[in-house]
Amino acid sequence: MNVQDPERPVLFFDGECNLCNSTVQFVIRHDRKKQFLFAPLQSEAGKHMLKELLASVGEDTFLLFYRGKYYVRSGAALRVCKLLGSLWSLLYAAIIIPRFIRDAVYDFISRNRYKWFGKSAECMLPTPELKERFLTA
Question: pTM of whole model > 0.85?
Answer without folding.
Answer: no
